[in-house]
Design brief:
Rossmann fold; globular; six-stranded mixed beta sheet; ATP binding; transmembrane transporter activity; 2 domains; 7 helices; single chain; 26% strand; ATP hydrolysis activity; four-stranded antiparallel beta sheet; alpha/beta
Length: 237
């Protein structure tokens, strides 16, 4: 289980996010929503360790994730962090080398085939369309096979076929027991897979609880959370 314990970040007496506490069990997804500047990206950075928390801690299976034995944690973001001058295959090999993972040609071919780029691996990424770049980032995540997956608007740049593929991967990751945190601005098909919902308002949790079943219900709850009081909408359920 991924847990945040009174996690908070302050800069020059300004509260960027928190304090917030939540649990994401294996095989579940928690979506994070909120207006621009609400602290969504900051929260992901705190969870990933890219930013040091002012207060609180993050644990996985009861152990602090910053310890030497931290689990593999992967991210799929609207920013792909790919090298445009390298080919698709070279990007994947390079990722394997910097993470200390032994990467074989068969593994590279396998993940490229799974994301529909089996014929494009030798092309420079700078020639890829935006959607192809996002698919390559998905292949990189498949290659890593982490226990915790952070998704930061992963739908960006994907067409309907790409979005369908992403949803299929997310379903499989749930079945495989991955713990996932999804940051999104939209109430789309992915919400049919979400278990819990965190809505941030000026860095504070305006709602924390079960996620409604339909995008329409999510939108209604989102609007109510931003208009109402944090105390009345937050729950431990």
């Amino acid at each position: 289980m991924l847990e945040a314990h009174e996690l908070a970040k302050y800069v020059a007496h300004r509260n960027l996010v928190g304090p917030v506490s939540f649990q994401v069990p294996r095989g579940e997804i928690m979506a994070v929503m909120g207006p621009n500047g609400a602290g969504k990206s900051t929260l992901l950075k705190l969870l990933s360790g890219l930013m040091k928390a002012s207060e609180g801690r993050v644990t996985w299976q009861g152990s602090d994730v910053k310890n030497e034995g931290r689990p593999a944690m992967g991210m799929l973001s609207h920013q792909t962090y790919l090298y445009s001058s390298l080919t698709g295959k070279e990007n994947l090999y390079f990722y394997g080398s910097i993470t200390g993972r032994e990467t074989t040609p068969a593994q590279i071919e396998d993940v490229l085939q799974k994301v529909g780029l089996e014929w494009d691996g030798d092309e420079e990424v700078g020639r890829y369309s935006r959607g192809m770049q996002q698919r390559l980032a998905m292949a990189r995540l498949l290659l890593q096979d982490p226990e915790i997956i952070l998704l930061d608007e992963p739908q960006t740049g994907l067409d309907q076929a790409g979005l369908k593929l992403l949803c299929e991967f997310i379903r499989q990751w749930k079945a495989d027991g991955k713990a996932m945190v999804l940051v999104t601005h939209s109430c789309d098909d992915i919400f049919g897979l979400v278990d819990r919902l965190l809505i941030l308002k000026k860095g504070h949790p305006a709602y924390l609880g079960e996620c409604p079943n339909s995008p329409e219900e999510v939108l209604k709850l989102y609007q109510e959370a931003l208009q109402g009081s944090e105390k009345s909408l937050c729950s431990d359920s």
